[in-house]
Each structure stands twice: as structure tokens, then as C-alpha cells.
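ok so i was messing around last nite and threw this chain in just to see what happens. nothing serious, just curious
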Amino acid sequence: LQTVGCMPPPVSSAVILTKAVGGNEAAAIFNSAFGSFLGIVITPLLLLLFLGSSSSVPFTSIFSQLFMTVVVPLIIGQIVRRYIKDWLERKKPPFGAISSCVLLMIIYTTFCDTFANPNIDLDKFSLIIIVFIIFSVQMSFMFLTFLFSTRNNSTFTPADTVAIVFCSTHKSLTLGIPMLKIVFAGYEHLSLISVPLLIYHPAQILLGSLLVPTIKSWMVSRQKALKLTRQPKAPVKV
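result:
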């Protein structure tokens, strides 16, 4: 559960849900992109602080691997995109399906590496408890962020509140699993550490999708109420 708290925000899910509701999409995109960039440095530090031993963890090796697997491909992709942008817009390669397949293979190999160990111990009761805790944590954080962003002295608009609720509670599986594989490379219980994050990711998408109609109706009604309160009152004739 601590590993989930250390994870950066996702790049896509919070933006998609914010757009579906009609919230502040620009703020959601900025938060997701900037948060993912900060997560490259902050997430490993938090993982090592809460779960690692400073005397035995190779900081240089970890950050060099993260730099080569996350930062370098991102930089190369941005450079190459400038030269093949027109071709990409014409052909529209299925990058979404490719990234989903790669992510699925990463998750699959993570579990294969760990469950090949005959000493692994994961009972069904613990798994059920983790699922319950994850859903409870997700719903509690969404409710708290909603209360925080809608308090009386808040300057956030209803569209801002939508972005805050989704962006501040979502965690990235795409960046999270590779980081865990690097930071805890060779650790026999790596998949047990990964289980809460693997549950949290579909939970945030499921809960977000179910709440889209409710949040959208609240935002529309809230915007109408604010618009009415800001309209100048007509002068009263005597």
C-alpha cells in the first residue's frame, strides 16, 4: 500500500475521465504530464525512503536504469516526432494497442518472475482484504478532495474540481511497474508489492467511469447556480 502512495499520476486515465465529464482538461493534462515527469525522480526516492535500506540500495544504478528506460526514450520520441509528424497523422499507427500489449507483458513477466518461486505465499483472504482497502482508499480520497476543492473560501471552479478529484487520486501503472522492477530487482516478493498497484489501476478507472454521470450533473448544476448568482440584479421600480 505504501508503494501505491509513492506512485506518480497516470498520463491518460485522469485526462480521459476529466474530458468525459467536461472539466478542466488543460489542467488535467498539465498535472498528468508534469506529475509523471517528477515521478521519475521523486517516486524512487520515496520507495527507497519507506521500503528500502539506504546502505544496500544502489542509488546510481537505479537512477541510471530509470534514465535509460524512461527519460531517454521520451527524449528520442520527441525528437523523432518532429520529423515524422506528417507521416504519423496520415498513417495513425495503433500506438494505444501497442502500449497496452507492452504493459500487459511487463505485468505478466513480473508475476512469472515471482510466482516461479515455490516459497511464495499469497492467501485469498489477504487478497480480498487488499481489494476492499484499495476501493475504500480510492473513494475516501475522492470524497476528501471534492470537499477540499468545494469549500466556501475556495477559488476553484466546478471544472477545476473535476480535474482535482481525478488527477489527485489516480496512480500510474505504466510507470509504476517498471519502477518497481528496477528498484526491487531480484527481490523474491516483488509481485506481492505490485499487487495493490495492480488492483488500484482498474479500481480508479471503474470508480471514475461509474461517477462520470453524477459528477457531470453536479458540475452543470453548480455552473448554472454560479452563473445566476453573478448576474446583476434588475433595479426595483418604485
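not much to say yet. The longest helix spans residues 190-230.
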